[in-house]
Amino acid sequence: MPRPSRSLLLLLPLLAFAGCASATRMSPEDRASLDRTLTGPEADQYLRVSAYLTPFFGDASKRLLTPYPPEDVRLLDDTSGKPISPGPIQATVPAGARVRITKVEFPTAWVVTERVLYTPRSWPWVYVTVEGAPAGEQVVLVLPPNLDRPDAFRTELEKTLSPHPLKELAGFSATVKEAVRTKKLVVDMPADAVRMAWGPPESVRRSLEGTARHEEWRYAGERRKAFLTDGRLVRAEEAGTSLLP
After folding, report:
1. What keywords were assigned to this record (predicted)?
2. What is the pTM of this model?
């Protein structure tokens, strides 16, 4: 059998690289601008919601920062299409904690090939340092794919991070503050506190009964639901079981 030519040997790695297409539609200029501004003057941020630290799927060098429990994380599927859990909860970081953005990484073809296989390789990653977490630890906030404009990227980022301290925390009662800190819910907590404790819902169903405004907040997989009336929590469920007395 004839040996492959030197030119073919040189071409093979390039063909393999070309087969791994970029998973970002944002222009190189916009990507560079976001990384420059978010790791520069806007690097200091605050958690808008209480969040969990978990393992980062198959990459032991990183940890995932997420507002949702591992059962509700929808970043990576197995071969049958079922969501893969990133791993057990290792710590809880309360809303209002200071974080610092250290790198914004988009899933270009080159970046995707460099990432560990069993991770959400085709999603943008925002690397942060977290107040209270071990120094030097790589913590990653994963944003949705296909964000093609800087304003769309910032909108998604601001669901978890705020450029300003959370002044509204000071207006909550001690009971509500503790619920937010521990990611629990208590009856009559305001909608803002529910969002800080459980994170933003995947969908909201609204209805009107007389003058009462009802909302049903549904989370990923509809495993968790929160029911509010006139902006206050009245009921919550997890896996069909009531969480409140």
Report:
1. Signal
2. 0.87
